[in-house]
Design goal:
By secondary structure, the chain is α+β, with helices and mostly antiparallel strands. The protein contains six helices and 14 strands. Strand 5 and strand 6 form a beta hairpin. The radius of gyration is 21 Å and the shape is globular. It starts with a helix and ends with a strand.
């Protein structure tokens, strides 16, 4: 009798544990607006069906990311000016990515004379854009917005590509903060003063094209700049980014989108 009671208690304990895990998984599934599970009901192929305001994800003609191949080559008359500077920032786990957000003036990038202020950076693994069919291991997006409401294209994103190698110094600075928000969707950590120049985002050449946000609502009219200079990141740093987000975004790269005859310009500095 004693053995039978012990066996029953053991079975009930297992059911409780697995039941609790199922509830947690189900809650995470129900809570997310979209995910990166290919072929799933909330995966990239279905983003445009989830909300009417996300229709551009399926109907848009200038979607991102794309393969950056067969560009038109031009020389820069002068490198684009940046005025990045340190300011207070926070780190947030959105569930589908890890993002650093500046809480004030962290400087700007000037594109064709228009100011675009730096707002945030986040990471995608593997990289979203490809270059001549080559996909790199990680891509950082520096999101900028123009303060001028009359500018036609108010959002500009700079993409920085990484391949496996030496650790990235900027990510190394954030290691403890990222570790503290693992699996904690919505968690936010105060980072203090963060200098965007530590990203070392300058490149002697870059691709430029008109695209969209790479996550819902996939808004078009985004000016994309993707650096040709490829930086390095360690395997453990990528693994930490994967571990920190929720299970449905461990690989959070949107599939490549159709080019649709868009111009891709490869700009080189003239030495």
């Amino acid at each position: 009798m004693k053995n039978q009671i012990s066996k029953c208690i053991y079975i009930l304990a297992l059911l409780f544990l697995f039941g609790a895990e199922s509830v947690n998984v189900q809650a995470a599934e129900d809570d997310r607006e979209f995910d990166y599970i290919r072929g799933g009901p909330k995966g990239p192929e279905n983003w445009g069906n989830l909300k009417p305001e996300w229709a551009a994800c399926k109907n848009g003609r200038m979607q991102s990311p794309i393969d950056l191949s067969l560009p038109t080559v031009r020389f820069m008359s002068q490198p684009e000016r940046t005025t990045y500077k340190p300011f207070n920032a926070t780190l947030e786990n959105s569930g589908h990515d890890i993002e650093v957000q500046w809480k004030g003036d962290a400087g700007s990038r000037f594109i064709n004379g228009t100011e675009y202020r730096l707002r945030a950076v986040h990471w995608h693994n593997p990289a979203e854009h490809t270059i001549n069919g080559i996909r790199y291991d990680l891509e950082l997006h520096m999101v900028h917005q123009s303060p001028d409401v009359n500018v036609q294209n108010r959002t500009a994103v700079v993409g920085v590509l990484y391949q496996i190698g030496r650790p990235d110094p900027f990510l190394s600075m954030l290691n403890a903060s990222i570790s503290s928000v693992i699996d904690k969707k919505g968690a936010e950590v105060n980072l203090g003063v963060i200098n965007p120049n530590d990203i070392q985002s300058e490149s002697p050449s870059y691709y430029r094209y008109m695209g969209s946000l790479a996550t819902p609502p996939c808004t078009e009219g985004v000016i994309w700049t993707v650096n040709t200079k490829v930086k390095t990141v360690s395997r453990s740093q990528i693994n930490l980014l994967r571990e920190a987000v929720l299970f449905y975004a461990e690989e959070n790269a949107r599939p490549l989108q159709a080019r649709n005859n868009r111009d891709i310009i490869l700009y080189f500095s003239r030495f």
